[in-house]
Amino acid sequence: MTSKVSEKEFAVINEISNNHLPDQRTIADRAGISLGMTNLIIKRLIGKGYIKAKQLNKRKIQYLITPKGFSEKANKSYNFALKTINLLKSVREKIQELIEKKYNEGFMDFTIYGNSDLVDVTELAIKNLSKLKLKYAIERNVKSDDEDSNVIVIAAKENGRETIDLLEYLSKTGVLYW
Question: pTM for the complete prediction?
Answer without folding.
Answer: 0.72
